[in-house]
Design goal:
The chain is mainly α. Helices cover about 50% and strands about 10% of the residues. The strands form 3 sheets. Strands 1-2 form a two-stranded antiparallel sheet. Helix 8 (about 140-145) crosses helix 9 (about 155-175). The termini are far apart.
C-alpha cells in the first residue's frame, strides 16, 4: 500500500500540480534524521509517461505515483505491479517492467515496445540454427553476439548472456544441437546429425 507521507494538504497539492503539468512527481529523501530533502523536477523526464498521463486524465494519485516510479526506474512491489498490469499500463517481468503496448500506441512508441518485449523463442532458435548451418560451429560468445541486439532491451548484459546460455542448453536437451567436445572451455556448438 502506498502512503504519501501523511495526508497533508500541501503535499497532495504539490503532487496534483506536478501531475497537471505532466512533470515527474517530487522525490523525498528521508534518510537523515530531522531533515527532508525534496527534489522537484521542472521538466519532463520521459515523454512516454507524460503522454500516458495526458491520455488518462482520470488516473488517481496512486496510479500516477506508481507510473512515476516506473518512469524513474524505482522499484515497486509485486502488488503494485499487478495493479498497473490490471490497468494495462506496464508489461515485462520484474524488475524490468516497461510501458505497455496499449500505452505505446498512444505515444507512438511501438518500435520501442517491440524492442522491450523481444522476439519469440522460436526466432532465436532459427537464428542459431541458421548460424550453425552457415558456419558449422560456434561458441556461446558467438551466439551472444548474434542475439544481443535482438534480445529484449529490458535485459541487462548479464541477463542476455544467461538467456542465450539457457536457450543453448534447452536446444541441446531437445536434440537440436550438441557440443563437439566434453571439455566445456574448448567445446563448440554444432547441429546434431
Amino acid at each position: 500500500m502506498i502512503i504519501i507521507m501523511g495526508e497533508t494538504t500541501g503535499i497532495r497539492r504539490a503532487f496534483r500540480i506536478q501531475k497537471e503539468r505532466y512533470f515527474p512527481l517530487p522525490d523525498y529523501d528521508l534518510s537523515r534524521a530531522r531533515q527532508v530533502k525534496v527534489t522537484i523536477y521542472g521538466k519532463i523526464l520521459d515523454e512516454n509517461y507524460t503522454h500516458m498521463l495526458f491520455e488518462n486524465p482520470g488516473f488517481d494519485l496512486k496510479t500516477v505515483y506508481l507510473a512515476d516510479c516506473v518512469q524513474k526506474h524505482k522499484p515497486i512491489n509485486k502488488e503494485e505491479v499487478r495493479y498497473l498490469r490490471k490497468l494495462n499500463v506496464i508489461e515485462g517481468k520484474m524488475p524490468n517492467i516497461y510501458i505497455s503496448a496499449r500505452i505505446a500506441e498512444y505515444v507512438d512508441e511501438k518500435a520501442q515496445y517491440v524492442k522491450n518485449k523481444g522476439f519469440e523463442e522460436e526466432a532465436y532458435r532459427k537464428w542459431i540454427i541458421s548460424y550453425l548451418e552457415t558456419y558449422k560451429l560456434g561458441k556461446k560468445q558467438d551466439f551472444i553476439q548474434l542475439l544481443k541486439d535482438k534480445l529484449p532491451d529490458t535485459l541487462d548484459e548479464k541477463q542476455k548472456e544467461s538467456k542465450v546460455r539457457n536457450l543453448l542448453k534447452k536446444m541441446k536437451k531437445e536434440g537440436i544441437i550438441t557440443t563437439d567436445s566434453d571439455n566445456k572451455r574448448l567445446a563448440n556448438w554444432v547441429l546434431k546429425k
